[in-house]
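F.,

This is the one I mentioned.
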């Protein structure tokens, strides 16, 4: 079995700097997933993007990100994770500079895909660098910091974008990407050691192509469904093709001596539970952000900054609970906080689905707190379950799977919940007597209908809220399914994980120190 080696293992005094730099790189690419949601109304007005275009502008990043994670992680294993970080941050920064100067939604979609390719090199390298350089006793807490950053960075990106939009246009979001990538690039050069697989495994090119083709066909078809119709032959054919290609990928990987992702890993219940939980958590999270940012700015009329600041209750609940999770696991066991976190997410989505055009912000805040708390409780156990299920030599695979589940969940969340929202919006919008050209513009996006003003804008806001209710309830159902799956897979009596053991060891060490 191949062993993981570091060519320049850092001394203990440098662990903190390695964690800071890798989390900064992680935060840079995670923030880019959600930050542009705040700018969607401005983008729609400036580039004349339709509702489907807006979904693609957001999801092109997530789709390319998710599709390339496994091959990008394999490249990091073969050629070095520090090199992967450096190349990924460079591509990410260069794509952001180019995006500043575009005016076409089609070009912007393509450039967001370029950013996603850079991010795919960055993200798996961050977690695998942490798990391969930190000693076992410190690894669980380092992973909890990583998980907290992975969750909170999206919300911080939303807030930073809202602040920028108070003074500048949506282009300033990409300048922020450039600045963050540059700082992370310098930090990587100075502090992050190189690490790679000792035997430089062969790249599974055919497996990579199959995984990319299957994911692209599936997500593309879901995003285009509201425009073409869910019963359209191209929609059904694309979804079927994507599923068949992914099934072919699974069959092919089973026959490979060094697969890109060994499907047999999912026989481990901890690995399967962690992967499924992460995917469904971020399915809910990114679908919610995509929907809520448009609601706050166009339906409620909040400014970009106010809309972003409205998400703070979620962050205030998420970050402390994510850091507290190792102690809760040590006291109550692994399964309980994880499952309760997913139940809290489902309850939050049910509560938020009751929000309408005239609701008080306090109803929104009442839903954001359990949503953030639930995400905080569930993220760290799910991430640790994935990495702990694998031996040290396969930590990069665990990192890539964690990231793939996260990004695929986010891409599908925006695609599926965004499609539910868009389809419901178009079907509920009744515009009798309106000229055909204006009616089609109003149906293309809420921002376009809002620009028409008068009764058209009022009807569009009502139709959007109806669609939002359906989308958020769909997110709640996904969270319930995740809770049921985790409760079943993490049955009592199974082996303890690194998180449980490390938490108990840490608690015992602290007790001995106090004595």
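My design for it:
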């Amino acid at each position: 079995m191949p062993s993981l080696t570091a060519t320049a293992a850092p001394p203990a005094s440098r662990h903190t700097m390695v964690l800071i730099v890798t989390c900064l790189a992680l935060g840079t690419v995670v923030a880019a997933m959600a930050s542009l949601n705040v700018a969607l109304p401005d983008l729609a007005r400036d580039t004349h993007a339709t509702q489907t275009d807006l979904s693609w502008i957001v999801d092109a990043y997530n789709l390319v990100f998710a599709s390339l994670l496994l091959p990008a992680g394999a490249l990091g294993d073969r050629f070095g994770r520090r090199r992967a970080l450096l190349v990924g941050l460079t591509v990410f920064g260069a794509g952001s500079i180019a995006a500043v100067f575009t005016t076409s939604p089609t070009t912007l979609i393509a450039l967001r895909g370029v950013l996603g390719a850079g991010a795919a090199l960055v993200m798996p390298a961050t977690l695998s660098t942490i798990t391969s350089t930190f000693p076992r006793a410190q690894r669980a807490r380092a992973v909890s910091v990583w998980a907290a950053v992975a969750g909170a960075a999206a919300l911080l990106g939303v807030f930073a974008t809202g602040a920028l939009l108070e003074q500048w246009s949506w282009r300033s979001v990409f300048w922020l990407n450039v600045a963050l990538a540059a700082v992370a690039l310098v930090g990587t050069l100075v502090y992050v050691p190189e690490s790679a697989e000792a035997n430089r495994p062969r790249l599974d090119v055919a497996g990579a192509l199959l995984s990319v083709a299957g994911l692209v066909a599936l997500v593309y078809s879901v995003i285009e469904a509201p425009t073409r119709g869910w019963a359209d032959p191209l929609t059904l054919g694309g979804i079927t093709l994507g599923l068949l290609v992914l099934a072919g990928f699974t069959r092919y990987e089973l026959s490979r001596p060094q697969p890109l992702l060994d499907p047999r890993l999912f026989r481990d219940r901890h690995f399967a539970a962690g992967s499924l939980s992460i995917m469904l958590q971020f399915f809910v999270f990114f679908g919610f952000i995509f929907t809520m940012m448009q609601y706050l700015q166009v339906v409620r009329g909040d400014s970009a900054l106010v809309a972003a600041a409205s998400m703070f209750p979620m962050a205030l609940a998420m970050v402390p609970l994510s850091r507290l999770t190792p102690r809760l696991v040590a006291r109550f066991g692994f399964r309980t906080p994880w499952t309760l976190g997913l139940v809290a997410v489902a309850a939050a989505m049910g509560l938020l689905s009751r929000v309408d055009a005239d609701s008080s912000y306090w109803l929104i805040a009442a839903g954001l707190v359990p949503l953030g708390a639930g995400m905080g409780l569930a993220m760290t156990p799910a991430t640790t379950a994935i990495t702990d299920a694998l031996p040290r030599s396969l930590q990069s695979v665990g990192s890539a799977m964690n990231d793939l589940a996260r990004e695929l969940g986010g891409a599908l969340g925006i695609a599926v919940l965004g499609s539910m929202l868009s389809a419901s919006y178009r079907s509920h919008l009744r515009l009798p007597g309106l000229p055909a050209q204006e009616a089609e513009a109003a149906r293309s996006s809420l921002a376009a209908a809002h620009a028409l003003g008068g009764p058209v804008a009022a009807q569009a806001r009502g139709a959007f809220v109806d669609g939002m209710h359906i989308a958020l309830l769909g997110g709640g159902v996904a969270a319930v399914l995740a809770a049921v799956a985790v409760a079943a897979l993490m049955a009592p009596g199974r082996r303890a994980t690194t998180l449980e053991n490390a938490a108990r060891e840490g608690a015992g060490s602290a007790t001995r120190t106090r004595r």
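The first strand starts at residue 4 and ends at 6.

Talk soon.
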